[in-house]
Amino acid sequence: MSALALFATQASAQTYSDLGTWSSVQLVKSFGAPFAMARLEHRSFDHVNSTECWFAMAGGGYNFNSWLKGDLSYEFWRIPSAGDMIQHKAVLCLTETLKRDGLSIALREKYELAYNPGAESFSNTLRTRLRGQYKAPESIFTPYLMFEFFSSFDTGKWVRSLHYAGTEISLGRGHSLDFFYMYHLFDKGGLTAACHTLGIGYIFVF
User: Fold this and answer.
1) Average pLDDT score over residue span 9-20
2) Are strands 175-188 and 191-205 parallel, antiparallel or unpaired?
3) Do residues 5 and 181 make contact, with C-beta atoms less than 8 angstroms apart?
4) What's the whole-model pTM score?
5) 3-state secondary structure (DSSP) of residue 25
6) pLDDT single digits (tens) 113-124
7) Under 8 Å between Cβ of 104 and 133
């Protein structure tokens, strides 16, 4: 079954709809080819009335060439919406990017190993993300479309999918904002649920 067919099937089987927000701050320090990174993110749900989760990330990576980079990071998650559950995640990413003029297409494969100390359990997830964006000459805006698909190595099943439309806005050297709308489909007790998400992020690259 194709990703588009699966998306159509999921959308027709929705049983729950919500509105939430994702807010983040991300720092990236370049050392030439190597780089370090850190991120703090908060997510709301229940029509923006409650905290779904928040997480902090720290890691580093390497730009192997002009089109391929990899990174490894640790994430600490606290999830009030799941009984104040704690998760520790080890995350490995590889990103391939093709660029021509102002257009860029990036494919990212992300592997997550998550540990839940409360349940003493591990989970393994593969996330595949495709992003297309365009930077017009002399413009501070870089609009993009993005799709991300999550699948479980443990069950072999679909977990969630994220469908973005947004833009990055340059604020000057190294500083930018990221605004987006995201349609979030996810598994809820064996049925498909949806969340409309509004996002804002601040990014500083130095």
Assistant:
1) 66
2) antiparallel
3) no
4) 0.89
5) strand
6) 999 999 999 999
7) yes
Identify the helix (H) or strand (E) that includes residue 55.
Answer: strand 50-63
Nearest to 107 by CA among 73, 146, 158: 146
Q: How confident is residue 187, by pLDDT bands cut at 50, 70 and 90? A: confident
CA 103-146-68 angle, 5° bins = 60
Structure tokens given for 21: 């927000």
Q: Which one-letter amino acid corresponds to residue 32?
A: G
Task: Report the length, in residues, of the chain.
Answer: 206
CA triple 68-174-26, angle to 5 deg: 70
User: Residue 5: helix, strand or coil by DSSP?
Assistant: helix
**H/E/C letters for each residue in the chain?**
CCHHHHHHHHHHCEEEEEEEEEEEEEEEEECCCEEEEEEEEEEEECCCCEEEEEEEEEEEEEECCCCEEEEEEEEEEEEHHHCCEEEEEEEEEEEEEEEECCEEEEEEEEEEEEEECCCCEEEEEEEEEEEEEECCCCCCEEEEEEEEEEEECCCCCEEEEEEEEEEEEEEECCEEEEEEEEEEEEEECCEEEEEEEEEEEEEEEC
Would you place residue 98 in the very low, low, confident or very high pLDDT band (cuts 50, 70, 90)?
A: very high
Residue 12 sits at φ, ψ, to 5 deg, of -75, -15
Residue 25: CB atoms within 10 Å: 13
